[in-house]
């Protein structure tokens, strides 16, 4: 091929490329993280996907989730106190908003309506190294914030620091159930 033909083809290719580049590009759409979307839907409609353990951070195996669910559901049958455990990370919220978000999540979940205002919502984040326990108003009469903090510090956190999230959750949950059982038995519940 002659040099002039090659130059002409190169020129036409560059011209075509410049025309394509000059086309208006579609606006970039910023898709927000689904903070209040998927998680809120899962928690709001428990009848369709309900478990007592909702593990968005994949901290637990299926067997471990089943064990935690069994503990909480057996306790609920005896006491009519509903307990749920949720793990979540940056897909759901930010570290600085963790406490507020989990409080809102507990309310969306219906903490104040569950079983005559007797519910406990446990939120754990490995990613943020945070956890919260939200007690409904009915539970606050049985379990104070100070007592809740002692259970968190004495039973959940020691195992979490070792990276043992199932053991920490199970230990904390067992202590929480034992504490509530003792309080309820003393009050004749």
What low-confidence regions span 5 or more consecutive residues with pLDDT below 50?
8-12, 17-38, 41-49
Largest sheet: 4 strands, mixed
Choose one word for the global shape: elongated
Major sheet strand order: 1-2-3-4
Structure, explained:
Helix content is 56%, strand content 12%. The chain is of the alpha/beta class. β1, α4 (62-79) and β2 (82-87) form a beta-alpha-beta unit.
Helices and strands, with pairings:
Blueprint: H1 3-22, H2 38-44, H3 46-49, E1 53-55, H4 62-79, E2 82-87, H5 98-109, E3 119-125, E4 130-135, H6 137-140, H7 145-161, H8 165-187
Parallel strand pairs: 1-2, 2-3
Antiparallel strand pairs: 3-4
Helix pairs in contact: 4-8, 7-8
Structure summary:
The protein has 189 residues and is α/β, with parallel strands linked by helices.
Question: What labels would you give this structure?
Answer:
189 residues; alpha/beta; elongated
């Amino acid at each position: 091929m002659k040099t002039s033909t090659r130059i002409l083809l190169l020129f036409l290719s560059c011209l075509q490329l410049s025309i394509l580049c000059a086309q208006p590009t579609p606006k970039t759409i910023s898709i927000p993280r689904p903070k209040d979307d998927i998680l809120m839907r899962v928690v709001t409609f428990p009848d369709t996907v309900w478990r007592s353990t909702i593990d968005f951070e994949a901290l637990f195996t299926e067997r471990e989730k089943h064990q935690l669910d069994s503990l909480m559901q057996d306790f609920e049958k005896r006491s009519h106190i509903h307990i749920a455990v949720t793990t979540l990370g940056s897909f759901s919220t930010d570290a600085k908003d963790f406490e507020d978000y989990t409080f809102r999540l507990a309310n969306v979940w219906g903490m104040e309506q569950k079983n005559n205002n007797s519910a406990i919502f446990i939120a754990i984040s490995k990613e943020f190294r945070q956890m919260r326990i939200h007690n409904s108003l009915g539970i606050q009469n049985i379990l104070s914030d100070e007592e809740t903090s002692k259970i968190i510090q004495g039973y959940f956190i020691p195992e979490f620091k070792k990276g043992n999230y199932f053991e920490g959750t199970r230990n904390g949950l067992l202590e929480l159930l034992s504490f509530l059982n003792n309080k309820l038995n003393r009050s004749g519940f």
